[in-house]
Specification:
Largest sheet: 5 strands, parallel
CATH topology of the domain at 98-279: Rossmann fold
Distance between the termini: 27 Å
Helix content: 40-55%
CATH architecture of the domain at 98-279: 3-Layer(aba) Sandwich
Number of helices: 21
CATH superfamily of the domain at 98-279: P-loop containing nucleotide triphosphate hydrolases
CATH class of the domain at 98-279: Alpha Beta
Number of strands: 10
Shape: globular
Length: about 550
Amino acid sequence: MLKLITRRNGHFGIKDNVQRSVKVFANYRIAKNNYACSQANRGKINFSKGQYGENQTCSEITIVNKNNDSYKSMEGWEIVSYFLLVVGFIGYVLVNSKASAEEKDNENITEGSDLQSSEKLDRLSIKLMEGLPSPVENYVDLQGKKKLLDQALKGQTIVIISGAGGMGKSTLAAQYAHECEQRKDMQVVWVKGTQIEEEFFRLAALLGIETSGLNNELIRNLVYGNLQMLYDRKSLLFIFDNVETKEKIKGYLINLPNTAKVIITARNGGLLDGIESFRVKGFKQKEATSYLRQALTISEEEAKKIINVVGDESPFRLSIVVAYLKNHPSTSVHELIEKYLKIKGGYSDNQEIYPEIEILFRNLKHDSSTGWKLLKYLAYLDAEGVSMKLIREIMEQTVNELEEAINKLKELSLIKANERKVKITHRIIQEETKKALSEEDKTQYQKILEKLIHEVDRQFPNVNNNPQNWEKVMKIVSHAKVLIEETKEINQSADGRNQLLSKIGAYFYYMNFNYKEAINYWEELLKKSNEYSYNRSP
């Protein structure tokens, strides 16, 4: 059991943190008890009464089936959750759902007597595809992979698109999704693979499902069940983009709708045993030449010169070259190659570098200091996108200045943006921005993190068992988790970081029912609080 380091009379050194720490510690103990109970009930550990406190025991209910030949041991909260599952599903069918007043663009998607009316389904369909990248101009189908993908999905339910970063995995999945939409035979549901739990909360909200008191498993079942009911005349295509580990995805491949197909993009082709993987290896030289000539209207000889220097495999790297030359029409292919080789010459051969990105960054710093500032902030937030509200608060620029910066970043293909959200185009851009900043100015790096922690904490409401603020929590929690990871190894913004640890732990405890994760965040909070308090003691 974690022990608190206290001062005289058992008080913390920082008075303002006392009540918060006591409350977190109490919830931390309950979370450990609940997690132990759930593991004991599944036969994974031996649980003895009083293990996490003398008066804390597992609250179990034994259910006997009609045949009286088997038993299932369940925790009290699980019984309530299953009851809510039944009530929630019936309620969804019988009662008109009411969308949040705050999200006006979601209103009436599921309201009304006819849930399957054409207009409402069309509006819902658009929302289900939120995050789906736009179709790519001059798209080159890599070795006919799109056709192979279509054939594979006719014979099996799940297919993995794998490959190294920048090889076109997400682009292939997105292009295929757009074709399915044009054929009108599939409803696409785009899911961010790094935020699957949060994405299913979003889908539940779109469908008018009340998630209060429901764990991830029940939310998943309700989402799948409602989608199958609403789209009973067409297939469903779920695309889980950029999945990092098996643990993140395996729980969402259970109880799929009968008509569902699943595409998973991941760097690891062996993510799931027994599932076919399409390895995307990038362009062949003929494909790369065709892409450059179409995108830039250059000769075959000029295209081959670019390929000889940059390489022909990575669609991402070549797209950066295209973005630079389009944004600088007076720069010749020869001049670009000279800049590229000069940057490359400053590194050793065994270093993985992206001279084409560095060329873009130099241009950005010269042309738009505000754009460079924005890109640096975006690099330390969730790669799946940042709301315009958060960006405005962080940047503190005029509307015109911010708009000009965003347009410049879009011209250079560094971000994608609409009126609600801004997203870095690729994780490699995010990684290279961090690298450039760490080499540029360590002090500035710390100031950026401090500013982000302060603003994310300010927009992150306190979490409890009242669902009133849950929608706001879902919009900010992914950024908080990224910042915690970024600052794990440095002593940065101690109090603000501790606030985020407390709130993320509460998110997992009250909203996600993931006691193990709540324990992890609260253990780190208690340790950091004690270290900070001890160091500040006279």
